[in-house]
Amino acid sequence: MRIRDVGLAIGELPTGKHNAITDVPGVWVGQATVISDEPTVRTGVTVVVPREDRIWRDYAFCGWHSFNGNGEMTGLPWVEESGMLGSAVGITNTHQVGLVRDSFVRYSVEQGHTDGFILPVVAETYDGWLSDIDAFALTEQHVRQALADAGPGPVTEGNVGGGTGMICHEFKGGIGTSSRRIDTEGRSYTVGVLVQSNYGLRSELRVGGAPVGRLIGYEEVASPFAEPVEGSIITIVATDAPLLPVQCRRLAQRTVVGLSRVGGTGRNGSGDISLAFATGNPLPAAGEGLRDLRMIPNESLNPFFTAVADATEEAILNALAAAETMTGQRGRTAHALPLDRVAGILGRLPW
Questions:
Q1: Where are the alpha helices (DSSP H) in the chain?
Q2: In CATH, what number is assigned to the domain containing residue 265?
Q3: What is the mean pLDDT of the chain?
Q4: 68-75 mean pLDDT
Q5: Which of 63, 92, 112, 199 has fewest C-beta within 10 Å?
Q6: 239 inside domain
Q7: Residues taking part in catalysis
Q8: Containing domain of residue 95, as a range?
Q9: For residue 17, is pLDDT > 60?
């Protein structure tokens, strides 16, 4: 299920074919999921691979934004310094960021993608409520599996990959994605967003503007927590438009608009970090000489800002809609968002 299955379409811009980040040409997604009961593990890894896995040698301009920084995304000092992304992007659980990062390095070396060094980008959210995060169940083989699985087309959402054990607004959360198409400067471009959603209080959840979290009480759907806790969200933005690093950073900032519409407030314990990359300019990793670059004028960026905000909002809601009830360690259960109730609430709104 996706949020449009209950009749809610976010914004006015059209989506891409799959309404996913993979609608951006050349952007692939791969995932590996790890579930076991001894020990109780509910975890995994999700990878976003630009340029059909040529990103290791053909970089992309990139920018990032931290709404609240209680989280991790590796490689950001070099992203900030160079304005370029030179690896796939990994998302996993908090305690295995290093494992995924090192697996990326080994993969790039074995594939002959680097003659020097590489600083991969890997991010995390905490799944230790449902999963034994100290079991270190994710292995390099799982990372290789996700990279091998990466490809175009529809993206599986909810309890999958890095989102397997995640909780969002006290309902089951996880991976979600969405896309928008834009016509500007005589050309068509696509903006895609993928989130790993693991944040938020029940009382703050809004769907299509409706206070769904307050209308679905704990007596109707129990919380996995004895008392509210704080989590995180990682947001990846991709576009095929020719944007420069500072423009990518501006797109990353606009993910907060979509997050806030759903109910994210950047709480003190939350790691709300966004990364945006643009593949509209070729950037060979090797070689000297001048580069001819193109850019969308800043005056034409407004549709991109709208696209990022709308796609981020819908990606989060898709994660909630797709996620299924999951029981993890210590008997904690994260219940799925009841879509029939959501549909009923939305049906009563005075559109």
A1: 76-82, 97-110, 140-149, 212-215, 245-262, 302-322, 339-347
A2: 3.60.70.12
A3: 96
A4: 98
A5: 112
A6: yes
A7: 232, 270, 272
A8: 3-285+295-341
A9: yes
